[in-house]
Amino acid sequence: MRLLFLGDMVGKTGRTAVWERLPGLISDLKLDFVVVNGENAAGGFGITEDIYLETINAGADVVTTGNHVWDQKEAVSFCERHDQFLRPANYPSGTPGKGSGVFYARNGARVLVANIMGRVFMHPELDDPFTSAEAILSACPLGEQADAIVFDFHAEATSEKQCFGHFVDGRASFVVGTHTHVPTADHQILNGGTAYMSDAGMCGDYDSSLGMDKEEPLNRFISKMPKGRFEAAHGPATICGVGVEISDRTGLAERIAPLRIGPRLTETIPDFWR
Amino acid sequence: MRLLFLGDMVGKTGRTAVWERLPGLISDLKLDFVVVNGENAAGGFGITEDIYLETINAGADVVTTGNHVWDQKEAVSFCERHDQFLRPANYPSGTPGKGSGVFYARNGARVLVANIMGRVFMHPELDDPFTSAEAILSACPLGEQADAIVFDFHAEATSEKQCFGHFVDGRASFVVGTHTHVPTADHQILNGGTAYMSDAGMCGDYDSSLGMDKEEPLNRFISKMPKGRFEAAHGPATICGVGVEISDRTGLAERIAPLRIGPRLTETIPDFWR
Amino acid sequence: MRLLFLGDMVGKTGRTAVWERLPGLISDLKLDFVVVNGENAAGGFGITEDIYLETINAGADVVTTGNHVWDQKEAVSFCERHDQFLRPANYPSGTPGKGSGVFYARNGARVLVANIMGRVFMHPELDDPFTSAEAILSACPLGEQADAIVFDFHAEATSEKQCFGHFVDGRASFVVGTHTHVPTADHQILNGGTAYMSDAGMCGDYDSSLGMDKEEPLNRFISKMPKGRFEAAHGPATICGVGVEISDRTGLAERIAPLRIGPRLTETIPDFWR
Amino acid sequence: MRLLFLGDMVGKTGRTAVWERLPGLISDLKLDFVVVNGENAAGGFGITEDIYLETINAGADVVTTGNHVWDQKEAVSFCERHDQFLRPANYPSGTPGKGSGVFYARNGARVLVANIMGRVFMHPELDDPFTSAEAILSACPLGEQADAIVFDFHAEATSEKQCFGHFVDGRASFVVGTHTHVPTADHQILNGGTAYMSDAGMCGDYDSSLGMDKEEPLNRFISKMPKGRFEAAHGPATICGVGVEISDRTGLAERIAPLRIGPRLTETIPDFWR
Ligand SMILES: [Fe+2]
Ligand SMILES: [Fe+2]
Ligand SMILES: [Fe+2]
Ligand SMILES: [Fe+2]
Ligand SMILES: [Fe+2]
Ligand SMILES: [Fe+2]
Ligand SMILES: [Fe+2]
Ligand SMILES: [Fe+2]
After folding, report:
1. Among B260, D68, D88, D142, whose CB has the most other CB atoms within 10 angstroms?
2. D225 vs A95: CB contact, 8 Å cut-off?
């Protein structure tokens, strides 16, 4: 099974690039399942219902999010209406929306996707991501109710990301980090068979600070005073993601490689899909 | 001019891999200058004088460090005796050792190397890294007292790293991040001609948590209680670094590409050096 | 019912002062119940079994702790043997020891004591303190299984402390903060009848940095480099705590006032007990 | 010399209480000098020019601030026009306004007032508060260009506050902390003669979370999702501050005691002024 994950879409340039390229990628690469993180799709801050719908239209099977999920007020309500929208699972019970779900891939496989947030340097008041993952895996184990299991682990610290990967190693198909907006080159298949990559990077303008226009962030580092607002950068976007080949038999990963398309970073397509 | 930077050596497996491979890399790739970060070389915590000397013997021109610089007590004294050893420049005045220096490359070029630490999520009590860089660049501008300028920016947050890159863009040859122990795939040449990469990754065992044996870090995430000590992992190391081709004329970067050698990550050598 | 809470005993000077003065206070003030925080009693770092036992001998009904609970390795085992020892309740299930318990006061009242840790600026990986408190209160509500309920809320941020107070207001007799080692003067009875004080302060040497010898902490703020170790200060201790008069009928608070005995701070005894 | 310091005015209720009571306090207590922290005077966020002027009219000799100084955009410009307005001194050079100044007290004494911000848990990117204080004290030493020296040290962590106190002990008349909005009871005269208190508390409604309406802060702790905005509480305010008697001869402190007037906390006036 061929699964593609695309990192945080940032602003108009990021989401437009995904909308334009994703349909072609799905048909060219014969993708069975696509997950896209959309937490920064609306000008860098959250996601609107229209953007969500357009991303699903472009071929995403699931849209995940992260700490920016509620930046657009409407997310609090539309998250309840759309089955393919995930917010981090480790919000407390009673939070609108859901953090995981089982979805059907184009090849008929049942894919459990879970969106979990890290806490280190991030969002200490969320529930324990490890406990949260354990509950999700217990309720729907790989090889039983799920043919593949994917975690979008939205976190800052590489230690927490790597430990999370080891924690679910052998019990999930794929763990991919998001949130730093920088793609890492440490993709590997862990000892137990789980594909792992610390961060997928973002889909956005890499001539920027995390996809945001660099002027104000740089100003704040230098002057320590706000001058303007944070706005999404609007140069051409580079799409960053990662492709994983998942065994139909075991649900574990067979291959993992990055996908990058755009002007700023080294372009690459998983060679096992070419 | 051909410059190679290698990320944080972690533990015995990391430093041994560097010592074994670096001499061959220098001759095979005709390297003019090599910088190695050594802050975790002694069992994950700091660096001893012997390890420093062995690293210089293996061909490093400069050894940089980071937040772990003082973990081995002896560093406080030996840092004063060795010219090619750098601690972060933004420690307060009066701190032993030095944070930057000008060194001669094999091709005769004067290379300014500076080691600076970020503050976000890290070490808030250090001096401002941006002010610190400004002072270093003013005292020794590119094209005047320096033919090449390299910053090892030891930091956690990608926002701070990227803003730092933009801050010195056009005034330095190369900014490379260290500290997360995960190589990033965002190497690029910024608009002003400075080569940039958010993190070089580590030289260590990538079947681990940041190069440390994963058992105790994972235990702490799960049980929230210490059980044992943090120890360096001892599986085979992957060397992670980055190569930059610097213009002899302008001191700015012409090419940048990662270098990775070892069993866990995708191996690669800058193709412009093959 | 007369309840006395004493803040974190720090080092030998702090614990000795408590052991010497507590028996007299209990008889002079006719105290029904005494809780003492002991997380820094062993040289500033954790607590040993001997210190725990001596504190119980001196008249404490319960010893609470905080983030330093496991600093002395032996705590991991002795916490299981001693009924009157509490570690923070919001450690994950499976953690040795317990975070709350019901104890009998000298007047026969059943006193529920719970030790909970805040997360802001502190210990993000613990379970949600608010959820944790809710579970404790549901299992043993005031006026049903408990005649009085006391929370030692061990936390850094005043916002989290105050919100915690409001959260249990009317459902607990008393919320007292610990951890900052500085007594606050904001004791009051909240609208619902719960006595509240942001921090009890410590029992230790107030010519110090948080009860620790001030030389090394000050050195680190100035030089940013470790020079020596952190050691408890050894000047004469000031005992800091707070007294609460709890209604035998409702279990809510009728009076609250600080208690401070020692050379450095303004001495005071709750006037309603004189 | 009689100096009164009042903690952060929060919102309309806080500033109004100060405006109403300060003139009477100045005449009744024969105050020579008054400093008021105004960083939350405008609805909890920053301060406007009108509020500043009214506070000066009410008798404040200096208005200090903190991390909220720039919340109201107009502060960036009016800070330049008003001599008695201070922002934290450890903003980088080039920041509008000033962080310290020498002012004349009613008794003719020259009073150096400096506003400095801590960094721990706060604002890591500011300049080192200790270095900043050193520079201020060197330029204008006690007993030479200044007859009294007061620091408003705006910080979160009690360790940083206490170490700051020890750092300037014997070289300043008075160090008072602000920012936690909770008055502490640890006022004392340090060994070298400097009066010290970890936090002055706020002038605001103490039936709140830090002076803000408690509903939204509590909601965020419970639900982890924003529901509304943060708004200043509007119940009756308690004025919190501290009085210091400073020797006309040495500039060091002779007496220190809190001042609290209002409905929620125990009222008190320095007894040496009665
Ligand atoms: Fe993001
Ligand atoms: Fe994020
Ligand atoms: Fe490192
Ligand atoms: Fe580091
Ligand atoms: Fe403590
Ligand atoms: Fe503590
Ligand atoms: Fe404030
Ligand atoms: Fe503040």
Report:
1. D88
2. yes
